Inverse folding.
């Protein structure tokens, strides 16, 4: 996974100018926000569920080494083949190898962020294998050469008229309506035959149960279940952090996830499978356990809570930054608040130094997170690392000077007096309308209140004058 | 009660009237208010911008200045949030004064149990609950309780009130375009209420909202809650 070098502010500036995008996003996020708020409010023990989800994940991270081995053992006993992949390249090579062994030129895919993270489709493409996205939204993006802008609703930035026009150009020339049911039917007809003829399916997993070796995929459309049950061969790729200790732990997450993600009490399809069973479903199951930076994240005691994420996207939907810039501004497979803390940790802070600053620290993400990831806390932690990794001499100088001034009150009073003099030519009608760079970033859209004629402490302070 | 008033750098420099009003309200309630001359800044800007260690001397300074007071009151929930939430780790100890540090409305309603300060303010007012007052210090509806008891004040509800105004400290400069997009929506919401005054408990957010409203050229102004509560 790589992130464009331009950084968040430049990308956001471009995305913010797209009025259609802002309308689509504003409408979509406020609809999901309201749905989520309603179904969360009706659960009396929601806070306890959040606490339980957080505690289970903390336990998994603390004991990941033993849970992983237990998971491997259970899977092997159930007839699956377990592969360990250090990085994306290794994981992609394993999938390609399985596909080649069965002589296929196409695999059908369940929507999976993990496979996006390792750019599986592109990698298979280079080997002459087409990876067909079967999730409705992912299919839309694949047909248009576009990419996901939301964890759960990848095509949230597109509206149905755009989709109708796309389908007309690609899979359904005859289509003349932008009615969602008509669009869905066109995709269904296109996909159905591919499901029936596919020899290899590829999936991610929402959860892996260490105790039993069970994999779990949660979805809305049923296309995922087609991929995990129809082809005789299935490859499931999951990040090593996706484990839960026991089957009963799913009880907590299967309540938290649908309510937080789609705002539903229960998602339409929950698929669970444990190894292979004779005459039912895939007869060959490969499970790829992916590290790709995760063990490095695990080493950071503050940052590791990012690995607790269950990819519900509640933090995106409540984020005032995301809901205005959209996901592409983050330049990462994982956008929004969770992306701002996960991506820099997975690929190294020096490769995504602007992401931790893509937040006003409003805290809405923390309150919405079903597993209580303290995103603002991790953002501050990563900002510290970013400042160390990428030197900005002017900023460092300004911050150092400010700290030096604030260390003594007489210095602060002196600077206040100095500012009063310096601002004189800038103040008109009691406000400042224009400032020099870099503060012009403020006055482009906002007036500034001038420094007051006398400071409060100057007039009212008591005690030692110096220090 | 002997109360140390922490004005904060923003209010001391740009909103001295909010700090003055805070002192006035507390004195009217019979408390002794002291304004230590040594006070400067809580260091939140440094902590939020990746320069946490630069804030350590400021945290130590805060504890040395205010450690002996029965309570510390400030017209900024954001600074109070930084003090209560971030100082313990920064200082390595959870000094008891941190817990005794409160934003004005929180102090009045939750600590003193006062919801009517005897104010009169003949204006149509809308209230913006700032992010850190909602989600860090969690003062709840304390400001609204106080506003509902102000004579002749017409309180109107702000649509999408809990949405951030886009300030975010250095975010407003580093990501000024995103910040401005958030501010534009906030100003639209404020203007849609027809209120002449938008109030809040944080000088920094009022700097952003007031700056936006002023640039748009309408009649709506941003006024700190303390000033409303001190009006007679």
């Amino acid at each position: 996974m790589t992130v464009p070098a331009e950084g968040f502010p430049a990308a956001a500036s471009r995305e913010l100018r797209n009025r259609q995008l802002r309308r689509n996003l504003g409408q979509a996020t406020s609809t999901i926000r309201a749905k989520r708020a309603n179904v969360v409010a009706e659960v009396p023990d929601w806070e306890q569920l959040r606490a339980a989800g957080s505690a289970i994940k903390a336990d998994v991270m603390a004991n990941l080494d033993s849970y992983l081995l237990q998971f491997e053992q259970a899977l092997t006993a159930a007839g699956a083949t377990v592969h360990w992949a250090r990085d994306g390249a290794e994981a992609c090579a394993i999938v390609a190898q399985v596909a080649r062994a069965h002589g296929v030129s196409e695999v059908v895919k369940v929507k999976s962020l993990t496979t996006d993270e390792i750019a599986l489709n592109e990698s298979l493409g280079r080997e002459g294998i087409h990876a067909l996205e079967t999730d409705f939204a992912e299919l839309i993006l694949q047909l248009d050469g576009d990419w996901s802008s939301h964890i759960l609703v990848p095509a949230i930035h597109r509206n149905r008229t755009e989709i109708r026009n796309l389908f007309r150009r690609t899979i359904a020339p005859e289509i003349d309506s932008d009615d969602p049911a008509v669009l869905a039917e066109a995709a269904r007809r296109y996909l159905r035959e591919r499901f029936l003829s596919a020899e290899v399916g590829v999936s991610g997993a929402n959860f892996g149960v260490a105790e039993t070796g069970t994999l779990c995929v949660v979805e809305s459309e049923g296309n995922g279940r087609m991929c995990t049950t129809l082809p005789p061969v299935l490859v499931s790729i999951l990040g090593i952090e996706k484990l839960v200790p026991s089957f009963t732990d799913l009880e907590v997450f299967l309540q938290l996830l649908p309510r937080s993600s789609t705002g539903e009490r229960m998602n339409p399809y929950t698929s669970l499978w444990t190894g292979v069973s004779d005459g039912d479903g895939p007869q060959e199951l490969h499970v790829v356990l992916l590290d790709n930076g995760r063990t490095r994240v695990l080493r950071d005691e503050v940052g590791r809570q990012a690995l607790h994420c269950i990819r519900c996207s509640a933090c995106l939907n409540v984020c005032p930054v995301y809901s205005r810039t959209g996901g592409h501004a983050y330049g990462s497979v994982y956008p929004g608040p969770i992306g701002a803390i996960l991506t820099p940790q997975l690929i190294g802070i020096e490769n995504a130094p602007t992401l931790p600053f893509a937040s006003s620290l409003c805290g809405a993400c923390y309150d919405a997170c079903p597993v209580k990831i303290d995103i603002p806390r991790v953002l501050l932690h990563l900002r510290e690392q970013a400042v160390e990794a990428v030197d900005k001499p002017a900023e460092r100088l300004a911050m150092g000077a400010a700290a030096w001034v604030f260390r003594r009150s007489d210095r602060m009073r002196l600077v206040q007096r100095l500012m009063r003099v310096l601002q004189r030519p800038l103040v008109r009608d009691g406000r400042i309308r224009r400032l020099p760079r870099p503060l012009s970033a403020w006055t482009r859209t906002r007036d500034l209140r001038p420094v007051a004629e006398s400071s409060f402490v100057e007039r009212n302070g008591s005690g030692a004058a110096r220090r | 009660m002997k109360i140390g008033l922490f004005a904060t750098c923003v209010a001391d420099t740009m909103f001295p009237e909010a700090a003055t009003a805070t002192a006035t309200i507390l004195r009217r309630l019979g408390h002794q208010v002291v304004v230590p001359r040594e006070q400067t800044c809580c260091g939140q800007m440094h902590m939020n911008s990746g320069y946490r260690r630069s804030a350590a001397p400021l945290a130590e300074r805060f504890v040395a200045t205010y450690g002996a007071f029965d309570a510390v009151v400030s017209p900024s929930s954001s600074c109070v949030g930084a003090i209560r939430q971030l100082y313990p780790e920064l200082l390595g100890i959870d000094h008891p004064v941190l817990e005794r540090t409160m934003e004005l409305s929180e102090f009045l309603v939750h600590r003193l149990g006062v919801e009517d300060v005897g104010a009169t303010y003949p204006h149509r007012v809308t209230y913006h609950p700032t992010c850190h007052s909602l989600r860090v210090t969690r003062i709840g509806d304390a400001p609204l309780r106080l506003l509902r008891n102000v004579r002749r004040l017409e309180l109107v509800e702000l649509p999408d009130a809990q949405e951030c105004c886009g300030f975010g400290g250095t975010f407003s400069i580093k990501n000024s375009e995103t910040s401005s997009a958030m501010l534009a929506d906030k100003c639209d919401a404020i203007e849609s209420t027809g209120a002449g005054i938008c109030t809040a408990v944080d000088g920094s957010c009022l700097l952003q909202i007031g700056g936006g409203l002023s640039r748009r050229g309408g009649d709506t102004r941003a006024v700190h809650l303390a000033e409303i509560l001190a009006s007679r």
About this structure: Chain A touches chain B through 65 residues (CB under 8 Å). Residues 9 and 38 of chain A are 34 Å apart (CA to CA). The longest strand of chain A covers residues 233-239.
